[in-house]
């Protein structure tokens, strides 16, 4: 059984002194876009943001209009 993760080589248009986080958009194993994640930015799921709001005291409800 092979437990190794698949690897892809990526060329990014960044300066040599760049240090930080990058958000990559992949399609079919190929990078189609990228964006450096700024220091004041947070990347997470809808579930994460819902939990953050609830912990901050907000009530989060689904808005279902049928």
Widest sheet: strand ordering: 1-2
Distance between the termini: 49 Å
Pattern of helices and strands: EEH
Poorly predicted regions are none
Looking at the structure, what is the overall shape?
A: extended
Instruction: Summarize model confidence as the mean pLDDT.
Output: 87
Number of strands: 2
By DSSP (H or I, 4+ residues per run), the number of helices equals 1
Radius of gyration: 18 Å
Largest sheet: 2 strands, antiparallel
Question: What proportion of the residues is helical, as a percent range?
Answer: 10-25%
Structural class: alpha+beta
- Please indicate the percent range of residues in DSSP E strands (runs of 2 or more): 15-25%
Structure description:
This protein has 66 residues and is an alpha+beta fold. The chain has one helix and two strands; from the N terminus they run E-E-H. It has one helix at residues 46-55, and strands spanning 21-27, 30-37. A two-stranded antiparallel ribbon has the order 1-2. Strand 1 and strand 2 (30-37) form a beta hairpin. The N and C termini lie far apart (49 Å). The model has no long low-confidence stretch (mean pLDDT 87).
């Amino acid at each position: 059984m092979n437990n190794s993760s698949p690897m892809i080589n990526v060329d990014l248009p960044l300066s040599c002194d760049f240090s930080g986080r990058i958000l990559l958009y992949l399609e079919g194993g190929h990078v189609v876009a990228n964006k450096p994640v700024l220091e004041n930015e947070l990347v997470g799921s809808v579930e994460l943001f819902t939990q953050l709001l609830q912990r901050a005291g907000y009530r989060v409800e689904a808005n279902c209009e049928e």
